[in-house]
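I'll show a record.
***
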Amino acid sequence: MRFLINGQPVEVDVDMRTSLLDLLRDHLNLHGSKKGCNQGACGACTVLADGERILSCLALAVQYQGREITTIEGIAEDGQMHPLQRAFIEHDGFQCGYCTPGQICSAIGMAAEAKRGMPSHMTRDLGAEFITLDRHEVRERMSGNICRCGAYNGIVNAISEVFVEAE
C-alpha cells in the first residue's frame, strides 16, 4: 500500500484488515493519534485525509491508499508549531493531553468544512457558500471529540482564537 503521510511517501505491506490508526501507530511509529474507544465515539484518533477529518480507528488503511494523510506530527510547518498548537498551549486547551492531537486535527478539518460551506446543526443560513464560525458553531462541530478532563473552555478558546472572526 502506498500513502503520502505528513508529506512523505510511504509504502508498506500490511494485512488488508489493518486500520489506518494501527498502521500509523504500530507500523509507522506515529504515536500522536490515540486509540481511545476504538469505536469512533471519542475522536482521539482523528487525522486528516486529503484535508478532511476522519476517525482513523474506523478506517481501513487500504481505503486510503494514494491519499494524503496528515497526523498531528505533520501539521507543523518549517519546524514551527501550527498556530492552533500554540493557541492550545496559551489557552490551557488540555490537561492530560490524550485527546489533544485529535482535537487539533479535528479543528483544522472543521475550519476547512466551514470554508467549504458545509452546514452544522447551528448554521443559520444553510445556503451560505462560506460559513462564519462563532463559538456556538465551534462547540457543535467539535462535539464528536471528547475530553475526559473537561478542558472544553480552553479548547474552544484556542480554536476560537485561530478560526473565529471577531464577534
